What does this fold into?
Amino acid sequence: MTTETAPPAAKRVPAERTHHGDTVIDEYSWLAVKDDPETIAYLTAENAYTEERTAHLAALRTELFEETRQRTRETDLSVPARKGGHWYYTRTVEGQQYGVHCRRAVRDAETEPPVSADGAPLDGEEVLLDGNLLAEGHDFFSLGAFDVSPDGRWLAYSTDFSGDERFTLRVKDLTTGELLPDEVPDTFYGTAWSADASVLFYVTVDDAWRPNRVWRHTIGSAAADDVVVHQEDDERFWVGVELTRSEKFVLIDVHSKVTSEVLVIPANNPTGAPAVIAPRRQGVEYTVEHHGHRFLILHNDGAEDFALAFTSADTPGDWVPLIEHSPGTRLEAVDAFANHLVVSLRTEGLTGLRVLPVGGGDEHDIDFPEPLYSVGLDANPEYRTGQVRLRYSSLVTPDSVYDYDMVTRQMVLRRQKPVLPGPDGRPYDPAEYEQHRDWALADDGTRVPISLVCRVGTPRDGSAPCELYGYGSYEASMDPWFSVARLSLLDRGVVFAVAHTRGGGELGRRWYDQGKLLAKKNTFTDFVACARHLVKAGWTASDRLVARGASAGGLLMGAVANLAPDAFAGIVAQVPFVDALTSILDPSLPLTVTEWEEWGNPLEDPEVYAYMKSYTPYENVAPVDYPAILAVTSLNDTRVLYSEPAKWIARLRAVAPGGDYLLKTEMGAGHGGPSGRYDAWREEAFINAWILDRLGHA
It folds into this structure.
């Protein structure tokens, strides 16, 4: 580094807490007081220190940002999706941060989605919502709802200008372009229209910011007159609302981490009382999709990797099997169309799609050519259709949109995200890169998959630098994805790898169960095993390896820093859940109670308390030689509070003062970081420049 400036001094104000006979001293709990000027001053000083310590990377950051910008078609247009008499799509414009949401009327005999040259507006387009105009005067902007009514007349949309995911809901008349006086503050994600578009359902949160109420709003009335349709009082559960693709039913989804209940309201009778499809039973999860005279039920009742059944839509009762449970094939979703069902699944670590004709015919899986890939359904708003739109990508294949004919089995590429020539002026060629699936052996003998991508010819003698990414929680799978910004690393010789640790969902429900609650440490030891394997297999060396993770993956980063600090040259922890025990002990915090079925309840269970205390990063900082650490957070994050990484970095400096620890706080953003695309590119350039510096490639 080029400066010896001392980091900001975090004052130490001891605060005690006692649980199960264990007293803990937390010297930095004062940092959790967000509205204290001292807290803001400290975070601001940390930002200044981080900027100074990375000042020598300014030119590289600019270079990486420009490479991303150079490779991206800034003025672009998504593939229009048909709904009723319109094609709906989103445009981006060079120099503008946010998308422009549009539609265009379907013309006579038009069956193919319209296209435009170089992302120009379609002839006859109607701008529904321009994110750039909405964002004017704000440092942050995010859309929560964007929901056109079944008759195409109204647009319900909601906006967040701070990053705390609390949205103001509004309704726009698309025939006149005028906003209705209807305005509802402090809403959450999720809306649903009644069949005649006279009623809009939406969701709000409780004091702990848990989505707990579904409301009914009559268009043209005041929000004060809105009616609570469903209130969930069990603090383990949260609610959501949506309209089925058939537009026949409004679904109210009630979920905890391990239990589900679904209620339905006929869309043509929006004032009717919600009816329960199947009462909740602890440990039974199910989702509902409407199809004709039946409800499709995807469930895990006696089916670890889920099965598909159906019940009567008129009088829901017994579940009739449709797809039996098959261990090792995880059924993840079912989408219903008039004459076909499409099941999203995963097997052997890869995603897939299975098509089931209604009323007979051979079911089949859609084939894809690459050894590693990610595939899933894209926007498919039409119920009566013979084709589905899907999205496909891999570590070397840019995001691709296909239309698949479910009868002829023909697949048409509608659009592959353009990757423009890079700094050398050469077009992007996926053949210049190679992807691999490798396997590490965990401490208990479990084989853990690793996905890798690098330039062709990258040496396997331990000399290549490597970035290892991980997550491993909530059954979320880190399926292969393409990144334009990552090309700047690959072209500099970096190997990019993803550790598919237990706690994720890559290998089915059992893979998830083996990395949660009192088995959570498997996530951490799996990641270390992957790091060790990459070195042993010659992909890299420990002093050439940087680890990266975000949110629960940030917890993973903090845990492996304590577990194996010698395994990494650097660690990037974004919005990291590093003070997990403190947060999970406080049921007043956002989402805490709903998290107990993922991590355990340390308030009530001394075994859970002791287990969490043994791995929580903040609790286990030790006087050892840590790798360089970059923690990135956001002041308005409601999912992982900014105070967690702030406290963690302060304790690292106090307990292990010889290390290089940096904290960067976005002062006007939330869990996802900066909202504008250019701001997000700059943030990624900042992180990648730091990674390259740690790898000796700056």
In short: The first helix runs from residue 37 to 53. The first strand starts at residue 15 and ends at 19. Residues 76-137 form one domain.
